Amino acid sequence: MKIHVAVTDTALVPAQPSDWLRDAGLSGAMVQFSGQVRDEQGRVEALHLEHYPGMTESVLSTIVEQAGKQWHLNGAWVVHRVGTMSPGDDIVQVAVSAAHRQAAFEACAFIMDLLKTRAPFWKKEFIGGHWFWV
Asked: What is the CA radius of gyration of the chain?
């Protein structure tokens, strides 16, 4: 299985995961999830994310490897953004390729769910001119 895991402070490119996962017909399915910075209350002016370099990538790689074994993936792409972002900015990309669509859907959801609960990211929101840790 080919794997790409990264944490970056630059803007995410929407087509990059699917371009990277293309495998000349080996996979019958590719599923891509893009998460955006959201502001449900109409108050968040910015979001700032920090992480522990090295540890974060290791946790993400472990999650991807676990998904790859469970669903026999051909490829997986996980990129998470850190730094300061605005509502609507892409913050995370998770994409997988597999022989069949059900495996791709399930693995993509699994990776995203574990990423939200296990990856060591710390965030604060800028509201009304002040930063607040979330």
From this structure: 15
| ∠ Cα 99 104 110 (to 5°) | 145
Among 118, 110, 99, 29, smallest CA distance to 67 is for 110
- pLDDT tens, position by position, for the chain (134 residues)? 999 999 999 999 999 999 999 998 899 999 999 999 999 889 999 999 999 999 999 999 999 999 999 999 999 999 999 999 999 999 999 999 999 999 999 999 999 999 999 999 999 999 999 999 99
Tokens coding 114? 């574990």
State how beta strands 2-8 and 83-85 pair.
unpaired
Q: How far apart are CA 110 and CA 50, in angstroms?
A: 23
Q: Which residue has the tokens 């991807």?
A: 64
